[in-house]
Task: structure prediction
Amino acid sequence: MKPVKVGIIGCGNISSIYFKNTQKLEIFDVIATADLIPERVDSKASEYGIPNVYYSARELLTNPDVELVINLSTPPDHAGICLEALEAGKHVYVEKPLAVTREAGKKVVDYANSKGLLVGGAPDTFLGAGIQTCRKLIDEGWIGTPIAATAFMMGHGHESWHPDPEFYYKLGGGPMFDMGPYYLTALINLLGPIKRVSGSARISFPERTITSQPKAGTKIEVEVPTHIAGVMDFASGAIGTIITSFDVWAARLPRIEIYGSEGTLSVPDPNKFGGPVRIRRADDSDWKEMPLTHGYANNSRGIGPADMAYAIRSGRAHRANGELTYHVLETMHGFHDASRDGKYYEIQSTCSRPAPLPMVLPANTLDE
Result:
């Protein structure tokens, strides 16, 4: 299959793993990269042998050979760059979240559909070995009919380790918009779409102090909720509980558990591609660790846009698609809205469960 020519916009903290993995995946030919900070883009282009270097997204989008854009800009810029890429006739895959607002996210998805272009976004961890194994177990009935789920992301924020953590506490940030996409995407992949949510949210610490370099001592005024507790009603009838927090110093809660009519499934960290999968059925005396049935157990960021690239060439559906990413975006806003308004938020969007990956794939491919 002919490789898809790719341009990567954004050379910040997360870009290294994308550059590394796109070099290995056979469907990609990364021909261009762009960043507003010259030394960052020059460094990445030199390290990974990228022939075309640009110092703005707009410049990269004028390259007629680029077919697919991987948008790694900061969240406030996600929708704008996606729309510019679509206007330039490029398919686009964006880091999470799809957009900061529902209105912008819907505009991106609708515009892509009107142009006949593919759009989608992170996370792609649900395509990894851990969650794909869980999907197989659920689909095969190992825990019976799923009736409930819990999901917990508990920590104390990014200011102690991230080199540039301010945006995690601004519009488009916070634990729900930073880590919620991993948990919600995993849950939707396993249980299907969500029909309504309720929630409570607060800002526990209105000011944060950065202790990491190079901005140690800088104060951050927090603008978004940093502790969110929510309940989800899935269209399937299952009920889920989720907590995302940047206000907790320590916790020993599971990442995700799925409770079925015949047993319980322990799902690995949805921010990772592998991890232990454990199951305990009604007649078991203890937990059993299940062997991983799929590939991509290591850090495989990039397999989402790779799946999109195969879809571009073959015409099949891609899995980390715009409907899924928008459904996640609306759900995250729904928790905030439910807390503010003191009532359920009815989710207006829906999506299909993404098709499971084949169990056996050749190395560095996403199609059989």
